[in-house]
């Protein structure tokens, strides 16, 4: 049975508050988690530990490595002509990015339809379980995590190979930070200050570059994903105060966030130097009610995130119908990039990932449609005529 290094049991309880324009407040409760830690473990963490400094590791591995030739963007990056419509971008992303089986599944589908996508890596998947104490989450004890660690040495090696293959195929790797502390595993990301976020990122980048030394590996495969590749992130459970974490992103040469929620499908917005790729709140056609278009939020909306494998086909269809309706709305509306946020997971009888897979297979080959990464959309935006781009960005969100 394949190990899923994912927050299986998080409950994202979403409260939508309509204030003047629309403000979203997101309340998150954490229940059982996967990996080696249980929710009960997390609730007992010390709240007195200061944010850690990076684990020490200095010399870089000298293992020789032949860089694989890397695929570039899967579409031609060129400026729109006056009056020309932008491509309908679809950005698929997966938080955690720690399942070999799911890398295989989505890489194969993406290859068939020439799609590229983004994996937001949980940095702890580069630490094997024996070395978990190398991680100290902000305000937490050493070795604590809500989503486990990398497992065995073989599993860490598999992870590295999956990441290398993904990069070679032109998929993007970003970060989902490390310990995934959401409400209930206090102090959760909502309570972190800039120093805490900097500590998370310092540690993430240290794991990325120094996993061999930290784990004591002498024959580890070299990870071709470098700090320069990591340009964006999604926060744990969409938690966090951007006044605190945006400065940490910029301090780590990162350019975008994709954690804030928009009412409808909206073009990215530059906020304090960081591009926000909004997570859209959309209508589920089968229910006529709105939800943030992310797997866990769908699940919570459908049945309060209870494991009901018998309803998997019904859930898959409701999610796929929602994606199709979002796609049609954007394609015929403001053409804002569709952000399809997910985890690699098998929740409720694997109800959710097949909807993403089916949508990728069905939509990415459609005319005027490009399924690509956040970084490639940013590259495309950078070559546009500033006035044309400003016009696109200023459009109101599209409702599905
Ligand atoms: Zn997550």
UniProtKB/TrEMBL annotation:
Protein name in UniProt: Polysaccharide deacetylase
Region described as Disordered: 33-75
UniProt lineage: Bacteria, Bacillati, Actinomycetota, Actinomycetes, Geodermatophilales
Organism: Antricoccus suffuscus
Composition skew (Low complexity), residue ranges: 38-71
InterPro entries associated with the record: CE4 (IPR052740), Glyco_hydro/deAcase_b/a-brl (IPR011330)
SUPFAM superfamilies: Glycoside hydrolase/deacetylase
GO terms (BP aspect): carbohydrate metabolic process
Superkingdom: Bacteria
């Amino acid at each position: 049975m394949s190990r899923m290094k994912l927050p299986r049991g998080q409950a994202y309880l979403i409260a939508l508050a309509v204030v003047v324009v629309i403000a979203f407040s997101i309340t998150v409760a954490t229940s059982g988690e996967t990996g080696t830690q249980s929710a009960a473990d997390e609730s007992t963490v010390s709240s007195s530990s200061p944010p850690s400094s990076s684990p020490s590791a200095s010399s870089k591995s000298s293992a020789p490595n032949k860089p694989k030739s890397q695929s570039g963007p899967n579409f031609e990056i060129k400026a729109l002509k006056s009056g020309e419509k932008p491509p309908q971008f679809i950005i698929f992303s997966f938080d955690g990015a720690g399942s070999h089986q799911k890398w295989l599944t989505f890489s194969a589908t993406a290859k068939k339809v020439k799609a590229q996508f983004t994996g937001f890596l949980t940095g702890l998947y580069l630490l094997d379980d024996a070395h978990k104490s190398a991680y100290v989450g902000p305000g937490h004890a050493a070795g604590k995590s809500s989503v486990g660690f990398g497992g065995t040495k073989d599993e860490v090696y598999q992870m590295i190979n999956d990441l290398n293959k993904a990069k070679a195929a032109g998929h993007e790797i970003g970060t989902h930070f490390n310990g995934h502390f959401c409400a209930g595993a206090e102090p959760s990301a909502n309570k972190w200050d800039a120093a805490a976020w900097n500590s998370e990122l310092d540690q993430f980048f240290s794991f990325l570059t120094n996993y061999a030394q930290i784990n004591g590996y002498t024959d580890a495969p070299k990870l071709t994903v470098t700090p320069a590749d990591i340009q964006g992130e999604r926060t744990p459970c969409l938690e966090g105060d951007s006044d605190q974490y945006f400065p940490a992103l910029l301090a780590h040469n990162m350019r975008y966030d994709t954690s804030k929620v928009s009412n409808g499908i909206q073009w990215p917005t530059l906020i304090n130097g960081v591009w926000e790729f909004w997570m859209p709140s959309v209508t589920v056609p089968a229910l006529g009610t709105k939800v943030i278009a992310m797997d866990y939020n769908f699940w919570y909306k459908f049945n309060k995130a209870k494991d009901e494998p018998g309803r998997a086909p019904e859930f898959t269809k409701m999610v796929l119908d929602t994606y199709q309706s979002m796609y049609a709305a954007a394609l015929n509306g403001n053409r804002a990039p569709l952000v399809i946020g997910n985890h690699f997971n098998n929740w409720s009888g694997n109800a959710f990932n097949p909807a993403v897979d089916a949508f990728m297979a069905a939509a990415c080959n459609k005319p005027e449609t490009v399924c690509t990464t956040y970084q490639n959309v940013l590259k495309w935006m950078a070559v546009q005529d500033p006035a044309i781009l400003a016009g696109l960005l200023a459009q109101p969100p599209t409702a599905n």
